[in-house]
Automatic annotation (TrEMBL):
The modification N6-(pyridoxal phosphate)lysine is found at residue 63. Pyridoxal 5'-phosphate binds at residues 245, 287-290, 387. GO terms for molecular function: diaminopimelate decarboxylase activity. This is Diaminopimelate decarboxylase. It comes from the Bacteria.
């Protein structure tokens, strides 16, 4: 993937940096981000919109991996930023993110979180439900402050990995139902409000999607609604946000499409409908998360111990696991791995790579093919850039790994490894009560 290669010592290199050097300098487990690949992915989306002559915003859905350093890179690449909590918004402010490019999502934004968004004068709030409409009205009136908003809807399309289905009514906790009048009701509550400026509509139809039809269907459904608002209320939406969900290759079974395939599909439906109904072409916004950071991330582990279950399998255990990547345990997600310090040796030993957490399900890869394992080997699992660190936990009080960025032969710490003191930083010993400190 990306800038990965093998050097003269038979070691895996990323961004021109030897992974064995990263492991010895920063320890393991460590997540290494190939920043050139992140930039290339961001550019591929932006360029395809530019070439197609479509006004667009590409927002990084930062729930996939949120940190000040990645926000700094996203900012450099001219991306907008999708945040989903006060915590992500706070991180964005600390990264000096241009506030007008921040979009705030979430199905239960608190009063404080919304007020924080107003305080920061962010680019837009994606309104999810009726309670939020009330809160935003209250805050904007109290502050006499304008806010751009998108209305999030569930268009009744469910994207699956290789296909999609349409449902009359989608059972989702997010957004207003497009088919049963909820969306119109939300629009009517918002569009004439003195401080609320409805930019348009938003939907997100799923994640790790490998086909374009579901986006076409969603775009068509949203455009249809926009066209009825033009007819009935003389109201024009200037933004159509079609969310994220573009699939990536975790294993050879996955067949991702080029960004251009999705962009073309979106452009085709939008231009045919705007032509047909003489509607001004809206800006298209998208929100990729996984497809920007997923394959840019590689996790390096050290192999410590093993267990043979005769006739069944050999487990090799590494120094991380579900605490730094819960996706295999949670979703049965599949990954590939290599022996990073012996890349030129045949990878023909079948093993199960297990983590070190006290849970039988803590297996990172059920069936991995590695060089004949030797304790101390450096094991690299690929495509761990999205929803790994961001979903990491301190289960078993394991410290969260370090995160290192590499680019052009240089490496830099982006998140330091947690220490044991970090682990206990919120603990309050009962003995403090006796000493009168509480
Ligand atoms: N926009 C919205 C409104 C979303 O809810 C999401 C993801 C995205 C954009 C970005 O989707 P992406 O391009 O990354 O597929 N934890 C799961 C994925 C959860 C996705 C949640 N929403 C996983 O590890 O597979």
């Amino acid at each position: 993937y990306g800038t990965q290669s093998i050097n003269e010592n038979g070691h895996l290199t990323i961004g021109g940096v030897d992974t064995a050097d990263i492991a010895s300098e920063y320890g393991t487990p460590v997540i290494v981000y190939d920043i050139a690949l992140f930039r290339a992915r961001a550019n591929a989306f932006k360029e395809t919109f530019r070439k197609a002559g479509i006004r667009a915003q590409v927002a990084y859905a930062s729930k996939a991996f949120s940190s000040i350093a990645i926000y700094e890179i996203a900012k450099e690449e001219g991306l907008s930023l999708d945040v989903v909590s006060g915590g992500e918004l706070y991180t964005a402010t600390k990264a000096g993110y241009p506030r007008e490019r921040i979009h705030f999502h979430g199905n239960n934004k608190s009063y404080e979180e919304l007020e924080f968004a107003f305080e920061e004068s962010i680019g837009c709030i994606v309104i999810d439900n009726f309670s939020e409409i009330d809160l935003i009205k209250e805050i904007s009136e109290k502050r006499k402050q304008k806010m751009d908003v998108l209305i999030r809807v569930t268009p009744g399309v469910e994207a699956h990995t290789h296909s999609y289905i349409t449902t009359g009514q989608e059972d989702s906790k997010f957004g207003f139902d497009l088919k049963n009048g909820q969306t119109d009701e939300a629009f009517l509550k918002l569009y004439q409000h003195p401080y609320i400026n409805v930019l348009g509509m938003h939907c997100h139809i799923g994640s790790q999607i490998f086909e374009t039809e579901s986006f076409r269907f969603a775009a068509e459904a949203l455009m249809t609604k926009m066209i009825t608002w033009q007819k009935e209320y003389d109201f024009i939406c200037t933004v159509l946000n079609l969310g994220g969900g573009f699939g990536i290759r975790y294993t050879e079974e996955d067949k991702p499409l080029e960004p251009s395939a999705y962009v073309k599909e979106m452009a085709t439906i939008v231009s045919s409908m705007t032509d047909k109904y003489n509607y001004p072409i809206p800006e298209i916004w998208i929100e990729p998360g996984r497809s920007l950071v997923g394959d840019a991330g590689t996790t390096l582990y050290t192999y410590g111990s093993s267990k043979i279950v005769p006739g069944v399998r050999t487990y090799i255990a590494v120094d991380g696991g579900m605490s730094d990547n819960i996706r295999p345990a949670l979703y049965g997600a599949k990954y590939t791995a290599v022996t990073a310090n012996r890349m030129n040796e045949p990878h023909s030993t079948k093993v199960t790579i297990a983590g070190k957490c006290c849970e039988s399900g803590d297996k990172l890869i059920e069936e991995a093919f590695l060089a004949t394992p030797v304790e101390g080997d450096l094991i690299a699992t690929f495509c761990t850039g999205a929803y790994s660190y961001s979903m990491a936990s301190n289960y078993n009080r394991l410290p969260k790994p370090a995160v290192v960025f590499v680019e052009n032969g240089k490496h830099q710490l982006a998140i330091r490894r947690e220490t044991y003191d970090d682990i206990i930083r919120l603990d309050i010993p009962l003995s403090n009560v006796e000493s009168g400190e509480v």
